[in-house]
């Protein structure tokens, strides 16, 4: 639990701002038996990141460790530290962070994005854009983990249980920071709801992993046959498959001698529950991003500020680190960035985007991440290309 009293999960950002205004750019607070340091200066962020050493410490998500303990599930990389974390991180980052590997996923991500565009086109108006983007991100994570489509963007809603489980899982994960951790000692109703959703997700994972394993076994049996088959194929095709095909990530992990099957299971789960760490040093990125000493006119939408040579300076490169920094930074960064660029390009190319005429101002709440306070409806109007650089509406 981080805070209690009048500060709810939604108001964490407001609490941080109050702390920053009252005590300045660095402050310490004791909460129960734990000490927290709050930082609001990017130069201090830099000192902390650079002093982390080879094994940066991250506190595990308590509700996840409780769940894993009770259900005999492996804890993923997110919850490990020291050499144990490093043993998992090294082989995984070799397979995930190299640009050559990530670009091999481009054609598949393009396909998933194409399905997203088709889905949006069939609806015209999306009533909860956040939810749809979560399905899109998870569909891409499924590709990375299992080389397989999970069907989260299908219109027939066959995978609605999985979607619901993910929704509940992430919501309760955010909320658990702000609750007394009674779930550690008793199966509270909150915990039971979390466990039910987590079981749905973990069971599906087990099924996918079993399928990968049996595919590996049968392809090992057919190895000779497939080599002969390959020899019959033309060189060009062979080259295409060996250079452009996305790697079979789960298989590569399972085949890596440095990793046990439990570790592999943990890594694959992490891919879905990514970025959900909490640390005792709390860095107020949100407040820094609104600080006029760091960003000129922070509340103005002015993307040009990021261009090289812009007059509007951003004071420190450590002021905005959405993927973290250093040896413990986000493993999915390149994958996520590629996904965002492809999605953005395809959507902008296809649609003119607007808010409904009666839309209210969008307010944010801060849970594990920043979310819109209420579901946001977005209207999409299809563009029709009439010449290379002009579009009209259908
Ligand atoms: C816009 C999307 C994303 C953002 C902003 C993001 C951000 C982050 C952040 C801030 C961390 C923690 C860094 C730290 O503790 O210092 C993290 C960790 C992690 N992320 Fe992401 N992430 C994103 C997407 C992804 C995706 C798509 C994947 C998987 C494909 C992923 C996999 C991971 C993993 C495995 C870790 C744990 C790394 C470790 O403990 O060594 N992330 N992410």
Explained architecture:
With 394 residues, the chain is an alpha+beta fold. The protein has a single domain (12-393), classed as Cytochrome p450 (Orthogonal Bundle). Helices cover 50% and strands 10% of the residues. It is built from 15 helices and nine strands. It has helices spanning 12-23, 42-50, 62-71, 82-96, 99-103, 106-123, 129-146, 160-175, 189-221, 223-232, 235-244, 249-255, 261-272, 285-289, 333-350; strands at 26-31, 34-39, 125-126, 281-283, 351-354, 364-366, 370-372, 378-387, 390-393. Strands 3, 5, 8 and 9 form a four-stranded antiparallel beta sheet that branches. The chain has a three-stranded mixed beta sheet with strand order 1-2-4. α6 packs antiparallel against α7, α6 crosses α15 (333-350) and α8 crosses α9 (189-221). The longest helix is centred in the middle third of the chain and has 33 residues, at 189-221. The radius of gyration is 23 Å and the shape is globular. 23% of the residues are buried. Residues 1-7, 223-242, 275-280 and 385-394 have low confidence and may be disordered. It binds protoporphyrin IX containing FE. Belongs to the cytochrome P450 family. It comes from Pinctada imbricata.
